[in-house]
Amino acid sequence: RIIRAARRLAPELVLFGTADLLAPAVLEAAGDAALGLRSFASLPPDAPIGPLEDFRASYLAQYHAEPDAPAMQGYIALSMLQAAIQLTAPATPTGPALAAALRAATLRAALWPGILLDTSWDATGQPHRAAFVAEVLPANGLGWSVLPPLQG
């Protein structure tokens, strides 16, 4: 109801929120007022980007359900662990050694397919990779914009 009220009060207002804003139940309740809603998503399984589409198709084939962001994050986490173990070899893969290996690396999806998106990490361990903004378009479609990783 708040989306409909916001559209009545300020029709040109850009409404921007988290991925929850684009949940099917929210879009259904908002009706036509949902047009133009925008949402940030760091790892959207339904974004039309090659590796993400491949992950979604594989997940659907294996589990007969739509993947969500936590499913994708778990898949990427195991791939990160595999990469970190390989990067620290032949040393013993201790927690600090694995963390240091990832912070020093940029994992390219072309070389590490399970990573899905090229990723690097900063000194605090935060990942830097492309992110996405989705916008509700007419006919229940979503338009996607890719935000490049932050530099610095």
What share of the residues does DSSP label as strand, in percent? 15-25%
Helix count, DSSP H or I runs of 4 or more residues: 5
Mean pLDDT: 90
What radius of gyration results from the CA coordinates? 19 Å
Helical percentage: 25-40%
Low-confidence stretches: none
Secondary-structure content class = alpha+beta
Largest sheet: 4 strands, mixed
Order of helices and strands: HEHEHHHEEEEE
Number of strands: 7
Which sequence of strands runs across the widest sheet?
A: 1-2-6-7
Shape: elongated
Give the CA-CA distance, first to last residue: 40 Å
Description:
By secondary structure, the protein is an alpha+beta fold. Helices cover 38% and strands 18% of the residues. The protein has five helices and seven strands, in the order αβαβαααβββββ. A hairpin with a 5-residue loop joins strand 4 (119-121) and strand 5 (127-128). Helix 4 crosses helix 5. The longest helix is centred in the middle third of the chain and has 20 residues, at 69-88.
What are the defining features of this structure?
alpha+beta; 7 strands
Short description:
With 152 residues, this protein is an alpha+beta fold.
Draw up the topology in text:
Layout: H1 2-9, E1 16-17, H2 24-30, E2 38-41, H3 50-63, H4 69-88, H5 95-103, E3 106-107, E4 119-121, E5 127-128, E6 131-137, E7 141-147
